[in-house]
Each structure stands twice: as structure tokens, then as C-alpha cells.
Target: Exopolysaccharide biosynthesis protein
Amino acid sequence: MSHSKLEKGAKYQNKNKFGKFKYSILFILFEIVFTITTLVFIVLYGPFINVKKTVVGALMTSGRHQYVARWFLSDADINKLTNTDLAHQKLGESTEKINVNEINVEHKNDTNIERYDVDGKKFKGYMLVIHDPTRVKVGYTKNLGKEGQCTSVIAQENNAIAAINGGGFSDESTSGNSKYTGTGGKPIGILMSKGKIISNNSGDLSQKVPTLGIDANGKLLVGNYSIQDLEANNVTDAISFGPVLVLNGNPQVITEEGGIAPRTAVGQRKDGAMLLLVIDGRQLKSAGATYEDVRTAMLQYGAVNAINLDGGSSTTMYYNGDVINNPCDAVGERYVPSVVYVEN
Model:
């Protein structure tokens, strides 16, 4: 056989091998896409209602990934699965009111902060116990209305020893023309800091929304409040979010479906000590927690009142110069509009 024929044969074999390899890769990619698409349809349209609630709840907890649920489901279907509207209605109808007279702040001017690891079956997190609750304040991005900032940056700008992310935000661009491109600059609900109303996007001073408030004596209020309610209770710092987890020492029935996700929460013990909690999620070592898991953790650490804050990719804890948890966002800390911080 001539040299040229050998070369042609080798080229044909190489081309044939490359063709088989290319088609193998394409087949694998097709299988991956087909499997993912099939799983999505099975989860969102199949008969497994509990699985559907868990997945949709987790997606809606994340401001960045809500669009996935909305690709396949209407807002009415999402509300039905997550029970969000019903939960807010139940909170508004609740006859049990918080009794802050039961809180006795016993450790003013105490600079001690305790740090604990919080471990569950499927999650890992951190709890900070702040003995002097008058040190706990609400901070916010200096670019409010335009862009959020990292929790650690807001903490540092307020000379804070510790901080966690705070309230939620609108997932729209600053122009309002594009969804799912939010930069954390547009907070949802009420935002108060050091006695000033920083933001109230409803524009109605009497509209009640699920809110965390801290009064001038360092006592934590959780529940459905308006700006007028907060001012009447001498609240200086406030953030809107929910659901309420513990009220007057009683675990609250949580009707809202949130799935398994990273979580952030604030609580207070009877002696006034403030509890700051974060739980990592969407990771191999920590899948995340349900609202019930967070409620259980708060009760275990002695909370008599507690409320859930913004979770998902926003969940961050800053302490003593470092971010000590593992935010699940691919780029690290997410930009947020507000934080709960501890004065140094």
C-alpha cells in the first residue's frame, strides 16, 4: 500500500473517531437536558404536592431564582402553593399580641457576645447571642434606591462588630423595566433606622406588614405593624419580613411554605439578649432549613419572640471582621438593602 493511501486511511479513521466522539457528547448533552426538563415537569406538574411545595417555596425564597417558578406557574398558583397571602392574612387576624413587658433587659452595657455552631440533620449554621440588645440596630445601603451593598460593607461602615442581612428587596432593575436583575437597592416594606423612616414603599403610614421592630429600650417586637404602630411603640429600628416564628414564648403555626433554603432570623430571650441566626443552604454540607427548623433553633436558644428575615442567597453573617458563614451565591456576598448589626 502506498504512503498516500496510508495517510488517507489514517485521516479517515481520525475523522471517524472525532465524529463518534462529537455525537457522543451531543447525546450526553441531550440526555442531561431531557432529564432536567422531565424532572421540572414532574416536580411542577406531577402529583407530588409536598415536593412541589418544597421546590416552589425554595425558589420563591430566593429573589434571584423566582423566575424559574414563574416560567411554569402563574402568581395565583405560586401563592396557593406557598400560602404567602394566607399566612399574611392569618398574621393580620391574629388576636395574640406581643407582650414586651415580659422582657427584662438585664445586661445593658455588657459587651459580651457568644457564638455557637448550630447543627441540624441537613444543615449547619451559626448563632450569636448579644447580651446588650440596645447595641442592635438596623443599617442600610448608602445607595438606597439604586444599589445595595454587601452585609459586611454596611457593617464596616457602621463600625459594627457583627451583622446579618436584613429585609427583602424588589427584584427589578433601578429603572423598573427589567425583572430579576435587582441590585438590592429597593427595599420591600418598612425600613427604619435610629428613629428615622428610611423607606416605606407602600406610602401608607397605616398599612400593616410583617415586621421586626426594636424599641428604644432594646426590646424586640415581631408581628403585623404599620409605621403608625411602630412610632406609637417607640420603635427606633425596623425591617419588614416574616413569618413570625415565636411569640410570647409560644411557637407559631407557620402556614407559609418556604421549602428548604438558607435562612436568617432574629430572636430575643426573656433576659433581653438578642439572638442572631444564620443557616447555610444549597450546599453539599448544608442543604438548608425549613421555617420550622429555624423556629426550633430559636426555641432551643431561649427565644420568647423571633421572626424570619430574608434568606436564600442573601443569608450572611459578619462577625469580628469576617464573614463566618458560607453564602450560597456564586460570587459570594449578595448586595442587600438592609442589615441588622451590633454596635462595636
